[in-house]
Amino acid sequence: MDGDTSQDMRYAPPQAHVEDVAAPEAGLVLAGRGERLRATLVDVVIALLAWWIASRLASFSPWAADGSWPALLLTALVGFVMFAAIHGHSLATRGQTLGKRVVGIRITRPDGSAASLGRLLGLRYGVGYLLTMVPVLGQAFALIDVLLIFRESRRCLHDLIADTIVVKA
Fold this sequence. Notes:
This protein has 169 residues and is mainly α. It has one domain. It contains six helices and two strands, in the order αααβαααβ. The chain has helices at 33-57, 69-94, 98-103, 117-131, 137-147, 157-162, and strands at residues 105-108, 165-168. The protein has a two-stranded antiparallel ribbon. The model has no long low-confidence stretch (mean pLDDT 87).
């Protein structure tokens, strides 16, 4: 060899610095993992209460579904409509589900701007909701989704799909 190392540079890692969340000077502080978990638990309790009330008021009950695809799809559709009815106004005006509001965190775009209701319901919640209904793929999606919170950016897969972050309110 004649000492030329230019060929070795083909295998060097990229040197670019990339940030996927807003700069600290934007005033955004990422929500902690524990805060996000607490908000999710509050939202789950609210959803269970809503299902219980709905099953008392109507003849439809998610716990009585026969396991057929039409019954499962109907249950999923009713569940998503209930989610949108319960959290839609708060998501549209504050970027928060009721659980996030209780905990004091909110959803924004990485630059700190408000995320649209369509982005939140369609991309952040809707895509994951549909994917988790697919056998095996849904379970893999759900596992990868929650495990990604352990990265430095604390962005789950649904955050990446919707291009959102969760910050302290």
